[in-house]
Design brief:
mainly beta; three-stranded antiparallel β-sheet; 7 strands; 43% strand
Amino acid sequence: MAFDAAQITVDALAVTPSDSTLVSFFGFYVGATGDVAVVTSKQGPSGLPVVFTSVPAGQIIPVAICRVMATNTTATHIVGFGPQ
């Protein structure tokens, strides 16, 4: 597989889950195991959350999101990546 610089993230940001804060991430990293509730970018800010259950520590979830919800998120040390 060849190196593709276009697939390298340009930013990373610690995430504080919030039911109201908008974000713009290409994906996120989970530092400590738990559930992560997100709203995908395709659904838009008023979309319904999807819960990734029992995400293991060290996992990267490559999905575009516009919210990381406080409600139903139990994982900690979440880092979002991509444009912000």
